Amino acid sequence: MTILARLELWKEQGTISSEQQAHLASLYRGEPFSLSLELNLLLYAGVLAFVAGLGWTISTWSQQLGDVLVLAILSILLTASFWYCFSRASAWSAAETAAPTPIFDYVLYLGSLVWCVELAYLENRFHVLSGQWDLYLLATALLFFFLAYRFDNRFVLSLALSSLAGWFGLRISHWLSHQDAAYRQFALLYSLLVGVAGAILQRLKLKPHFFGTYLNIATNVLLWAILSGVFEREGNGLWLVFLLIACGSSLAWGLKRREFAFVAYAAVYGYVGVSSLLIRNASDFTFILAYFTITAIAMIVMLVQIARHFGRPE
Fold it and tell me: Which positions fall inside the DUF2157 domain (predicted)?
């Protein structure tokens, strides 16, 4: 039996989907295939690595280079990036819009990250706002929200939501008592605000395709906040109930919408929460090792099976 015939047999038996059969058959025949997603992620990672290297160079050699040269280089990069984006952007639309040039999104991401580096350098060297980093984070979040919606970029939207989360965290750190509980409460509030804001903007048809980014971040923050309550020594039973409800909701959403990420969130956070209670008082290293070995393998097998099911047509 030839490979193509075997692939056809597997499709008829339901082992693989029609899309998987067509993809594997095209690979066997040597037909070209798209690497756009992989290249996209690689280029974003390259921009991130470049800015990380830039930040390391500045932190290491700033004394030798001098403030004027460092700020000049950062300002030139920042100005050039944003000038490129604003000069080549198409007219704004509330719907999803394609990038006007192949490098447009990466230049925007570069400019956004350079903005962060320059702000950090200014504050560390000149203390413009006397260490009030929460104001920097709030201003940065507002700028990134504007850029994300103006230029339709999910990566910059993620930076905006992360900056907003940082602002929440720094505001809480100014309180001297009960910080753990305060962080948890405001993380829950943050996830609620992000989720509701994403739903409202989707309802208003204002970049509705951004809703997935809002929901992913809100879900992770919510589950992490509840999980931190499970780790507490007292009152963790109630938090475990909340965690199971939240994981069940994430699982139901993922299965209904056929979005595997939410199934994975439910599995991973639920596994960590339940495991933390089951082995909390365990002292036998062999038992702990056996538990994690068996349950981790079972978890991986389950997720693989679910992922394969997601690849099949209904």
Answer: 9-155
